[in-house]
């Protein structure tokens, strides 16, 4: 008798989850259709994008990968067309699906918490001047995901490369630091990258946004022991000969048991001068303006990335650089005594 009740309970659970999933699908499908009508969009037409965290989040413990099929069915947006974008969020967050029209910047964001679908409409056009007051208006409308939604959709609207958009998916947003990482990767690939017998690793020291672009675009990760994060104390930062250090590329030749450490630099002063902004601003609107300005120079990057120093090293010394408690810049002679 007990087994029968357990079996019935399992069936009820399956039916509940199935009906809940069906209800979710119906709500999202209707919400997307209404949004398409409101934005005057037709399925598969050019000039609009969909951004979602579907597949990453599971509000109320319910997976959301099903939403990708609904999005593609209703809107016609796909990965292959480059107008279906994603952003990473923790599993307990609500499902978000945002549609943006490139022509006028109108955006509708749908939010599903596992039970109720809500929507908000706001203009996030990257064209023209974004004031602090305008950003406050956008943030009030979109809530905590405002920067993620706006920055990534701006990137798409401004024709950011697909690789950078994938880095933004992992990083959860697009920002000047991530674009700096794209510049660093471009520099590394042109000057040092090869498919020969060399292996590569990167020391993120100090760590900031650029490191997520390096992980995604060069496939260097902590799990594969090719990416290491080293924070510096304030005293260690002050002792650096060049404060613009952006990390260390390690190039190893295992057969020769030798390698090279390349200390890289990113010049933020040049970045701000290029865009005409004042360094040190904490304004979100300024961050978006700086990002927009840097995106305009991806095809003809100015000399913001450079090499501070190259050091030929034995294999044993290369290993020492990634040991716990070691300041790699001190070991490589980049600190003042």
How do you describe this structure in short?
With 337 residues, this protein is of the alpha+beta class. The chain has helices at 2-38, 66-75, 132-142, 146-157, 162-171, 176-191, 210-218, 234-238, 268-275, 284-295, 315-321, 328-331; strands at 48-52, 84-86, 95-101, 106-112, 117-123, 198-204, 227-229, 245-253, 258-266, 305-314. The protein folds into two domains: 1-159, 60s Ribosomal Protein L30, Chain: A, CATH 3.30.1330.20; 176-332, 60s Ribosomal Protein L30, Chain: A.
Task: Give structural attributes.
60s Ribosomal Protein L30, Chain: A, five-stranded mixed beta sheet, alpha+beta, 337 residues, 20% strand, 2 domains
Descriptive notes:
The structure is a single chain. By secondary structure, this protein is of the alpha+beta class. The chain folds into 2 domains: 1-159, 60s Ribosomal Protein L30, Chain: A (2-Layer Sandwich); 176-332, 60s Ribosomal Protein L30, Chain: A (2-Layer Sandwich), CATH 3.30.1330. Helix content is 42%, strand content 20%. It is built from 12 helices and 10 strands. The protein has helices spanning 2-38, 66-75, 132-142, 146-157, 162-171, 176-191, 210-218, 234-238, 268-275, 284-295, 315-321, 328-331; strands at residues 48-52, 84-86, 95-101, 106-112, 117-123, 198-204, 227-229, 245-253, 258-266, 305-314. The strands form 2 sheets. The chain has a 5-stranded mixed sheet, sandwiched between helices. A 5-stranded mixed sheet has the order 7-6-8-9-10. A hairpin with a 4-residue loop joins strand 4 (106-112) and strand 5 (117-123). Helix 6 (176-191) runs parallel beside helix 10 (284-295). The N and C termini lie far apart (80 Å).
């Amino acid at each position: 008798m007990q087994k029968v009740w357990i079996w019935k309970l399992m069936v009820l659970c399956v039916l509940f989850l199935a009906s809940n999933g069906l209800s979710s699908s119906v709500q999202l499908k209707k919400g997307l259709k209404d949004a398409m009508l409101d934005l005057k969009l037709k399925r598969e037409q050019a000039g609009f994008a969909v951004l979602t965290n579907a597949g990453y989040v599971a509000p109320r413990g319910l997976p959301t990968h099903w939403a990708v099929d609904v999005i593609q069915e209703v809107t016609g947006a796909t990965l292959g067309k480059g107008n279906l974008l994603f952003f990473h969020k923790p599993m307990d967050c609500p499902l978000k699906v945002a549609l943006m029209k490139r022509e006028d910047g109108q955006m509708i964001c749908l939010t599903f918490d596992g039970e109720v679908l809500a929507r908000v409409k706001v203009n996030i056009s990257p064209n023209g001047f974004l004031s602090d007051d305008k950003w406050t208006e956008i943030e009030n409308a979109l809530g905590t995901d405002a920067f993620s939604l706006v920055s990534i959709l701006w990137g798409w609207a401004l024709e950011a490369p697909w690789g950078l958009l994938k880095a933004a998916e992992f990083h959860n947003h697009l920002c000047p630091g991530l674009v700096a990482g794209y510049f660093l990767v471009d520099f590394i690939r042109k000057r040092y990258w090869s498919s020969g017998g060399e292996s590569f690793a990167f020391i993120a020291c100090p760590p900031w946004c650029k490191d997520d672009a390096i992980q995604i675009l060069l496939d260097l990760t902590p799990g594969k022991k090719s990416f290491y994060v080293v924070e510096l104390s304030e005293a260690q930062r002050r002792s650096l000969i060049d404060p613009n250090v952006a990390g260390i590329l390690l190039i190893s030749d295992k057969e020769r048991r030798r390698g090279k450490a390349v200390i890289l630099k990113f010049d933020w002063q040049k970045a701000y001068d290029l865009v005409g902004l004042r360094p040190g601003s904490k304004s979100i609107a300024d961050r978006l303006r700086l990002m927009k300005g840097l995106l305009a120079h991806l095809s003809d990057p100015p000399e913001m990335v450079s090499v501070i120093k190259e050091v030929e090293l034995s294999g044993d010394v290369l290993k020492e650089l990634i040991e716990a408690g070691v300041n790699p810049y001190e070991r490589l002679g980049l600190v003042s005594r």
